[in-house]
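DM from R.C. (forwarded with permission)

"hey, sorry to bug you on a friday — could you get me a structure for this? deadline for the figure draft is monday and I only need the backbone to look sensible"
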Amino acid sequence: MRHAARLGTATAAILAATLLAPAGAGAEGNPLAAMGTAFQPVVRGAIRVEDGSAKPVAAGTSAGQAYLTITNRGPEPDRITALSSPSSRETRLYRKGPDGTLAPAGDLTLAPGQTLRMSPDDVFVDFRNVLQPFRAGGEVSLTVTFEKAGAIGLRLPVR
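My reply, with the result:
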């Protein structure tokens, strides 16, 4: 009887995980994407986010970085107004200048048809006061909020 109860609990847990998982992760309009080490593109309104990933952060390190490719497929500009993550106390866009200095990028506007390809040598997501190390093979949650498209929730693979 005890074995049957454990089997029933395990089956219920698997069924619940299956039913609660986002249908078609990465499908247009789905605000959550990226499981494991693969990132599926996410589309919300005119904004498409793809190629997302975060870099591993070692224990004792308080800062991390993530990179995304964001395209505005609409006829009007849209502006990134906020970033947030439960993985750090502060999350924002940073820009590396030609002389190598880092500075907050502030709100970025994407013109119609423009693609922003984040990289360590240009614009990137900066996580400050990381709460736990980002481990390779794990995920980091990130919400990017746009003036028109609204909030886009992402789960970035750490690699």
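R.C.: lifesaver. The helical segments are 2-20.
me: no worries. The first strand starts at residue 42 and ends at 44.
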